[in-house]
Amino acid sequence: MKAKTILILAGFFGLTAVALGAFAAHSLSQILSPDDIRIFQTGVQYQMYHALALFGVGILALQRSDFETQGASLSFLLGIIIFSGSLYALTLTGVRILGAITPIGGLAFLLGWGLLIRSAWKI
């Protein structure tokens, strides 16, 4: 991915994290249980953390576009979609088996951080 694309995705995921957090606080609290709200908010938090990480990788990609930088951006992107997305889906649908794929998103986050460390090490 180009740096511009990474930065746009970082902005998109940051924006949607704020919107989803507000949605949970103001609308979902009347529909979902406190436990489900907490699960949903965990998805929002990790989405925001990794939107910021994606932003940092986008800045790094302006300087270097190596395998590690590209891999970190893709890993963070997939982590957001799988980790946060599965938490949103399981709380909104009640289909608890969706929680089984959440750790795959967590592994994608870990891979992204590892690749970011490797990219920085090579500077």
What would the average pLDDT be, to the nearest integer? Answer: 95
- The number of helical segments is 4
Number of separate domains: 1
Give the ordered list of helices and strands.
HHHH
Distance N terminus to C terminus? Answer: 20 Å
Task: Tell me what portion of residues adopts beta-strand conformation.
Answer: under 5%
Strand count, sense and closure of the main sheet? Answer: none
Overall 3D geometry?
elongated
Radius of gyration using CA atoms only: 15 Å
Write down how many β-strands occur, each being a DSSP E stretch of 2 or more residues.
Answer: 0
Proportion in helices: over 70%
SS class: mainly alpha
The low-confidence parts are none
Can you tell me about this structure?
Helix 2 packs antiparallel against helix 3 and helix 3 (67-93) packs antiparallel against helix 4 (102-121). The chain is an all-alpha fold. The protein is built from four helices and no strands. The two termini are 20 Å apart. The longest helix is centred in the middle third of the chain and has 30 residues, at 34-63. The protein has one domain (3-121).
